[in-house]
Amino acid sequence: MLMTARLDRLYRSDRLDRLAIGLSGLCMVHCLASAVIIGLIASASGIIGSPWIHEVGLTVAMALGAVALGRGVLIHGFLMPWAVGWLGLGVMAGALTMPHDGSEALFTIIGVGLLALGHQLNRIAAN
To answer: Which of 12, 72, 99, 101 is deepest in the core (most CB within 10 A)?
Structure first.
């Protein structure tokens, strides 16, 4: 019974990590696509490069990241995945304070990569 409950929690945590990694990947695709589209089609930059998209995306990433990484720490007890993931969230949050001149996208991509690495470390530690 105890083993079944633990495996159930592990499975749910793994699903959250995989979902968070997918969201991180979508964020990275968004940043890269925004830079290309803005460079090619200036009229599209008003919608795709809009600051509210980044604010909403960061809010969702932080909420999902906090839940998935926090659950992982509770299950396996290792802090490294949590620390790496939160470093990525911090870099992403810092990127929101930067001007939209390309440096913001670069720092967002670095933050997303760190967050995805934290989720992957969480998955490895849980197994």
So the answer is: 72
